[in-house]
Amino acid sequence: MLARLSEGKPQSISRLTRGTELTRQAVTKHLRVLEGAGVVRSVRSGRESLFALEPLRIAEVRDYLDQVSRQWDDALARLKAHVED
Amino acid sequence: MTDRIEKTIELKAPVSRVWRALTDHREFGSWFRVRLDGPFVPGQVSRGRITYPGCEHYRWEAVVQKMEPERLFSFTWHPYAIDQSQDYSGEAPTLVEFTLEKTATGTLLRVVESGFDKIPAKRRDEAFRMNETGWGMQMQNIERHVQQAAA
Q1: How many CB pairs under 8 A join A and B?
Q2: Residues A47-82: pLDDT tens digits?
Q3: pLDDT per residue over B36-92, tens digit each?
């Protein structure tokens, strides 16, 4: 299901159910769990809900940059020790 | 402001010394923890292997951009693009720029890494996970370095 969602376009429950052995109810339940975990998000389109993968959250991007930032701090500390020897 | 990382550090060493530590590939490798195959040449790919204990199978690959003596050294690379089974050539790289400035006591070094907004979210996520283990190893490196200095 995540593989289908990773195609990028929001998709309806019926579309996501098609070609699987799961019932519509089972797929809906699964999607709601994923939504609760912040992996997917749903948007309303007329009478149905469309589901899409949640983009990387801003906090995660910040975490990533923090990590890279710390690596630079370490590398520069080693450079400092290297040239000041 | 999630596109760039900017660092400045005051080094008690002349600009010429810092320039050599940045651009001589052996010196660069000793503090950056990478064994490079050859010297840095503007416009050319720099290849090598990471030398962190336990990470020797990781690759280093960058394209040297500018080398303006004792002033600017820059390269582009794919941060953490070390999975040899994947092709990263279609992805936008980040740009790393080292700028040197003479001060009364030595050298002011500025490092800017920019272009993070163009990295696909999937890769940022992957890099983040890999970095969590990398960080632990960095700590060990520092500890070892400090112990050697104290001994």
Answers
A1: 87
A2: 888 888 776 665 666 777 787 888 889 899 999 999
A3: 999 999 999 999 988 876 667 778 889 999 999 999 999 998 765 555 556 666 677
Chain A CB contacts of B149 under 8 Å are: 81
A49 token code pair: 């809900």
Report angle CA B100, B106, B108 to the nearest 5 degrees: 35
Contact list in B for residue A54 (CB cut-off 8 A) is none
Q: What would the pLDDT profile of B9-31 be if each residue is shown by its tens digit?
A: 999 999 999 999 999 999 999 99
Q: For A72, which of B5, B11, B30 is closest by C-beta distance? A: B5
C-alpha to C-alpha distance for A62 and A57, rounded to whole angstroms: 9
Edge-to-edge strand ranges of the sheet holding B72-77: B4-11, B107-114, B94-102, B72-77, B59-68, B45-50, B34-36
Question: Are B128 and A80 a contacting pair at CB < 8 A?
Answer: no
Note the pTM of the prediction, 2 decimals: 0.64
Contact present, B62 and B76 (Cβ < 8 Å) = yes
User: Tokens in use for B13?
Assistant: 């060493």
